[in-house]
From TrEMBL:
It is an enzyme of class 3 (hydrolase). It comes from the Bacteria. It comes from Pseudooctadecabacter jejudonensis. Keywords: ATP-binding, Hydrolase, Nucleotide-binding, Transport. InterPro entries: AAA+_ATPase, ABC_transporter-like_ATP-bd, ABC_transporter-like_CS, P-loop_NTPase. This is Glutamine transport ATP-binding protein GlnQ. Its EC number is 3.6.3.-. GO terms for molecular function: ATP binding; ATP hydrolysis activity.
Length: 248
């Protein structure tokens, strides 16, 4: 279980998080929605210790993130970054096996390669892709490689940051389905950030709406369309009018 309790974060005068409270239950897939710049990425980075909240507590498995041994703690996470964020100079298999080739998770090279090929297979890519370079792959294939990397070290928590950005709707659907399958098959706890309502419906068990520094609404995905919260209604229906200000 991951809990956020009264999380505040400012960057200078920019008060981004103003008391976020949120619980992500073990083995559940939480999707966080909200407009651009509302602090969704800041929230995820705060769990990983990439950003220090000014106030509040984040716990993972009942312990404050600040009280975990950092390397052991980070080894429990998988992460799919926006834009896949692959290393162009490394062949695909080394991208996938990145964490298995160094540090506390280091494996012998042939084992790391075999694991990478197995993970590539899990996301629908053949062994032939292993020795190619990211620039030789389509955007959809790069996302799959990013997914393979996210699951390479058998994490129990995975973060997906805008997993379908830049993909056509069909490829986005494929990636959404893969993410859902990964979350279900591996039994991981997942947090996904997205603007894409089709991702929300495909990936989420639960949804949280972040706006004006706080979680305005949270509930099971099946109740999203009936939610009365005006932020949710505006976001789900893509309306210009509502409490979420738009720049016209
Ligand atoms: N390291 C940083 N230094 C200064 N400001 C930051 C930093 N990281 C984020 N911010 C600011 O915090 C706010 C929230 O950023 P964040 O990236 O979390 O938004 P987001 O909700 O993920 O948006 P998007 O959906 O566009 O990715 C923005 O105003 C951003 O400029």
């Amino acid at each position: 279980m991951i809990t956020f309790e009264n999380i505040h974060k400012s960057f200078g005068p920019n008060h981004v998080l103003k008391g976020v409270d949120l619980t992500v239950d073990q083995g559940r897939s939480m999707v966080v929605i909200g407009g651009s710049g509302t602090g969704k990425s800041v929230l995820i980075k705060s769990v990983l210790g990439l950003i220090q909240p000014d106030r509040g507590t984040i716990t993972v498995g009942g312990r404050a993130t600040t009280r975990h041994d950092r390397d052991a703690f980070l080894s429990r996470f998988g992460m799919l970054f926006q834009g896949a964020a692959l290393f162009d100079s490394l062949p695909v298999w080394q991208n996938v096996a990145f964490r298995l080739l160094r540090g506390r998770l280091k494996l012998p090279r042939d084992q790391a390669r075999a694991t990478a090929i197995d993970k590539l297979r899990q996301v629908g890519l053949g062994e032939d892709v292993a020795d190619r370079f990211p620039a030789e792959l389509s955007g959809g294939m790069q996302k799959r490689v990013g997914l393979a990397r996210a699951i390479a070290a058998d994490p129990d928590i995975i973060f997906f940051d805008e997993p379908t950005t830049g993909l056509d709707p069909i490829m986005a659907g494929v990636i959404n389905t893969l993410i859902r399958d990964i979350v279900t098959d591996l039994g991981v706890t997942a947090i996904t950030i997205t603007h894409d309502m089709s991702s929300v419906h495909a990936i989420a068990d639960d949804v949280a709406m972040l706006h004006d520094g706080k979680i305005q609404w949270t509930g099971p995905v099946g109740t999203l369309n009936d939610a009365l919260d005006p932020h949710v209604v505006q976001f789900v229906n893509g309306r210009a009018d509502g409490p979420i200000a738009t720049i016209r």
